[in-house]
Design goal:
The chain starts with a helix and ends with a helix. Strands 11, 12, 13, 15, 16 and 18 form a 6-stranded antiparallel β-sheet that branches. Strands 20-21-27-23-24 form a 5-stranded antiparallel β-sheet, with no helix packed on it. Residues 207-268 and 896-907 have low confidence and may be disordered. The chain contains 31 helices and 27 strands. With 907 residues, it is of the alpha+beta class. Helix 14 (280-292) crosses helix 30 and helix 30 (863-893) runs antiparallel to helix 31 (900-906).
């Protein structure tokens, strides 16, 4: 905690300075999701765990809940004030990191007895690894994987010892529910750990069991081994590390003790099949735990299948000089593996192959495992296996925390067997020097990275010397001094590395302001205007973050998630909506036609966010504009189902059910160029401006005087206005290949002469499609809205995941509910419920003239199958508990000395 706080303070980062920490998805997704959770915990959210009515005009929330908010730590957000939501997420993140360090320290002491303060220091080395400081510190849900890895390794230890099956399965379930994505990687890491323990370490409780020694004797031997190691740590290598003793015994090692009865050193070498046979217990525990988590995991998996497809990313291995550079303090790289563990832990890990007090099998086996895992990062098949066979967008080495854990375990094994000699330190130092020389030309290093690394190596050598001197002279105060030296070096290195990461992230990622006066005004305005479910209140086009509705309230189109539904994204795109993040961050569409379609009765207009560098820094009031709109459920007359075409204006009219736009032909040319290249659809290509003096583009068309002029140019990046650059300018941010799409925007009113003149100030250029200009007749729109209101529902209620509406008697045709037809909606109109039909991407129900009510209920896909799997897993756990209770009763009835006593007591 001290390292994290100190590092953020050095970087002047929130909450210790003026720099925001809300970079990338932390500001756009994670903080808003925690704000929505706060609303749910305090009964202020629109929706429940199944449906989020605030985002995307109604989205499936259980997959999002399982992806972002099911950590046991997440509920702590409810203890903070709503306007301190950023501080709440920060505190939760710090607590998660500290917990990961504590659990790793517990694991290390379970693997082998050793000094408690060293285990704590190395636990902190793992918790403050480079993956945490550079990648996960702004991805709070990934930090659950940081906790899950050592926790799952502990579960594996218990399973090998035939203990705590029920507790282990419950912990597996918690890990997978907290964040299944990193839990998947942590499970692979834990599986490697368990296999290594079986093949390399061969713990006493496993070796004796598979070799035929009674279980009770195995426990006795293990206990005796721990007691011997605690009393005589220098003699521990000869009694507890496997059948291979140390190569030599010097003054620092002491005299080897005689092998204990039943210990690995005296037990016969077990066969590989018998060792592998022990894997069924960890496997059963894992399956039971994942089964308990299945309702959430299966819903997330199904939601992923329904999500808008993300960008395809091709894996590219990183240069080895950059990989090795990330081992050193102070390095930073967005798309390289963050391998940093402080120099103390790293150098101790590198001494393992040279520490002759450690048995050969342990030395070479664990060292080989570390190297093998590192190589797996750079090979595409194994890279895909680490990431569930999909190369992630953004940072491609999200499994790095597993390797950091293995490095820390290797460091512990080297020190816990016997403190490394000068020879071992020189060997590890030589490897570290070679890695540093390889990384010397990397652009990911700071000039002071190597000096700080050297200082850490010197601190370790000095601390070990003090420790030996303290043992020889019986001066425990010197041990305290050694501990302070090592921990102080760790704190300094990790704080400096975090400070560098904080600064670098702000330099190359989008960032967002924490909660402030802007959001407070917006939330107050929305609460004053809110009328859900009679109508929606839109937070507005001038967004602060990608999930404004969850952050400040209301019920808007805005929605950003890894699980944004395909139907929402495609429907809003067809209607002229904009998006970023490859289609998964849907933006608000400020359009009177779509406001009528989606029953948006109040809309906020906020000044541009002053935090964004491209926006003017002038304050302004938050204005709420109200209008009468049809209800959430309307009725469309009988007829063939329409289908979207290529024009966003005509698509809006199809969904509205009336013609309200004129879509004139237009001409486009530069002021110094008569013609521009054309696109395949008949539009124009607009070149980017490289200098302020470059010519602008002029668009000319003829429209009905007084009509509202709209421009639809999803692939254009620049500005547009109706007054030759002297009036208000609308920003368009679209590109190709499409990573983002610009939304349709209103530019103003057609003058009395009907001549429309639009000036385009192209920044990055792009293209303007055929039919880009639409002129809206507001009178026709009002008439269409009145017709929909007259045929619409007379009463609408929303209760969690259920929508009920009363429709006029004799209604025929199709009842359309103004929400995207995401998979899982089932509707009924006077009969049994059936999967909802789609009307141009919205939920719809056929009406036969007899029904007077419509009801729709949502159940996330995958929930039933997941619940069945959880039921089977629960039945398995109950069966294990019942069997153990029966065995305990049988043991209690057995006469003294009965052979079953020891085994039953162990079970």
């Amino acid at each position: 905690m001290i390292s994290l706080v100190f590092g953020d303070a050095l970087a002047s980062s929130f909450p210790f300075g003026s720099r925001t920490r809300n970079v990338n998805d932390l500001g756009n997704q994670f903080v808003p999701y925690h704000a929505h959770l706060w609303d749910m915990l305090h009964g202020e959210a629109d929706g429940d765990v199944l449906v989020n009515w605030q985002s995307g005009y109604g989205s499936s929330f259980l997959p999002d809940l399982g992806t972002y908010l099911t950590s046991p730590f997440a509920v702590l957000v409810g203890l903070f004030p709503r306007d301190e939501i950023d501080l709440a997420v920060y505190v939760i993140s710090v607590l998660k990191i500290a917990t990961a360090g504590a659990v790793m320290a517990w694991l290390l002491r379970t693997v082998r007895t050793g000094p408690w303060w060293v285990a704590g220091a190395l636990g902190a080395s793992y918790a403050l690894c480079g993956w945490t400081l550079a990648t996960a510190v702004y991805n709070p849900m990934w930090l659950d994987g940081l906790i899950a890895l050592p926790l799952l390794c502990l579960v594996g230890e218990w399973a090998l010892a035939r203990r705590r099956t029920i507790t282990g399965a419950l912990l597996v379930a918690v890990a997978w529910m907290a964040n299944f994505y990193t839990a998947y990687m942590a499970t692979i890491g834990a599986a490697l750990f368990v296999i290594a323990r079986l093949v390399i370490d061969r713990p006493a409780h496993v070796v004796t069991a598979v070799a035929g020694t009674p279980r009770g004797s195995a426990r006795t031997a293990a206990k005796a081994e721990r007691e011997t190691a605690a009393e005589h740590p220098a003699t521990a290598p000869a009694t507890a590390a496997g059948d291979d003793g140390p190569d030599d015994v010097g003054p620092d090692h002491g005299t080897p003790a005689a092998p204990l009865a039943g210990s690995p050193a005296s037990a016969p070498r077990p066969s590989v099949p018998r060792l592998l046979g022990e894997l069924w217990r960890p496997l059963v525990t894992l399956l039971l735990g994942v089964g308990l988590a299945a309702p959430l995991v299966s819903v997330i998996y199904a939601g992923t299948g329904e999500a808008y497809p993300g960008r395809d990313t091709e894996f590219v291995a990183e240069p080895w000089q950059d990989v090795f550079a990330r081992l050193l303090p102070g390095g930073y790289g967005y798309n390289s593996p963050s391998l940093y563990v402080d120099t103390v832990a790293l150098l101790l890990a590198l001494t393992l192959p040279f520490n002759t007090a450690v048995p050969r099998r342990v030395r070479y086996g664990w060292s080989a495992l570390v190297v093998a895992v590192l190589l797996s990062f750079q090979w595409k098949p194994t890279h895909l296996a680490w990431h569930a066979f999909t190369t992630p967008n953004g940072s491609q080495f999200r499994q790095t925390f597993v390797l950091c854990a293995l490095l820390v375990i290797a460091a512990w094994l080297s020190l816990a067997h016997a403190r490394p000699t000068w020879r071992a330190l020189l060997g590890g130092g030589g490897v570290l020097a070679a890695l540093t020389l390889t990384a010397r030309d990397s652009q990911l290093l700071y000039a002071w990275s190597v000096p700080i690394m050297l200082a850490g190596a010197a601190a370790l050598a000095l601390a070990l010397a003090l420790w030996r001197f303290a043992d020889a002279r019986r001066r425990p105060v010197l041990v305290v001094l050694a501990a302070v030296l090592l921990v102080g070096m760790q704190v300094g290195q990790s704080a400096a590395t975090l400070a560098v990461s904080d600064r670098k992230r702000l330099a190359h990622m989008d960032d967002y302001a924490p909660w402030g006066e802007r959001q407070r005004q917006q939330r107050a305005a929305i609460q004053a205007a809110d009328g859900w479910p009679a109508y929606r209140t839109e937070p507005g086009r001038q967004q602060t973050v990608g999930n404004d509705p969850m952050m400040v309230g209301g019920q808007g189109a805005q929605y950003y998630s890894s699980l944004t539904s395909d139907v929402l994204s495609r429907t809003m795109t067809a209607l002229g909506g904009g998006w970023t993040s490859g289609g998964r961050s849907v933006q608000s569409l400020d359009n009177p036609v779509t406001d009528v379609i989606f029953s948006v009765g109040a809309r906020l207009y906020s000044p541009p966010d002053p935090h964004q560098r491209w926006n003017p820094r002038h304050p302004g009031p938050v204005v709420t504009v109200r209008q009468k709109v049809p209800p959430l459920v309307t009725v469309r007359p009988p007829g063939p189902r329409p289908a979207y075409g290529s024009s966003a204006y005509r698509n809006q009219e199809l969904l509205l059910g009336a013609r309200v736009y004129d879509v004139p032909s237009y001409t486009l040319h530069l002021t110094d160029r008569p013609q521009l290249p054309r696109t395949r659809d008949g539009g124009y290509r607009v070149p980017a401006r490289h200098r302020a003096a470059d010519p602008t583009a002029q668009v000319k068309a003829v429209c009905r005087p007084g009509s509202s002029v709209f421009l639809w140019a999803p692939r254009y990046w620049g500005k547009a206005d109706l007054r030759d650059g002297r009036g208000p300018q609308a920003d368009f941010r679209g590109d190709y290949p499409p990573k983002r799409s610009a939304a349709m925007q209103e530019l103003g009113r057609t003058p009395a002469n009907g001549q429309v003149r639009i000036t385009l100030t192209a920044l990055r250029g792009g293209s303007v499609p055929r039919g880009a200009i639409g002129c809206l007749d507001r009178g026709k729109l009002k008439a269409a809205a009145d017709r929909l209101t007259g045929r619409g529902a007379t009463d609408v209620s929303v209760d969690g995941a259920t929508v009920r509406a009363t429709v006029p008697a004799g209604s025929r045709g199709t009842a359309v509910v103004a929400m995207p037809n995401i998979k899982g909606w089932e509707c009924a109109a006077g009969g049994s419920a059936r999967p909802a039909t789609s009307y141009l991407g919205l939920v719809s129900v056929p009406l036969d003239g007899k029904a007077t009510s419509v009801s729709c209920t949502f159940q996330p896909p995958g929930l039933r199958g997941g619940a069945a799997a959880a039921g089977l897993a629960l039945l398995g756990l109950v069966s294990i508990g019942a069997w153990r209770a029966w065995r305990a009763r049988q043991t209690g009835r057995a006469p003294a000395g009965h052979p079953s006593t020891s085994a039953a007591s162990h079970d």
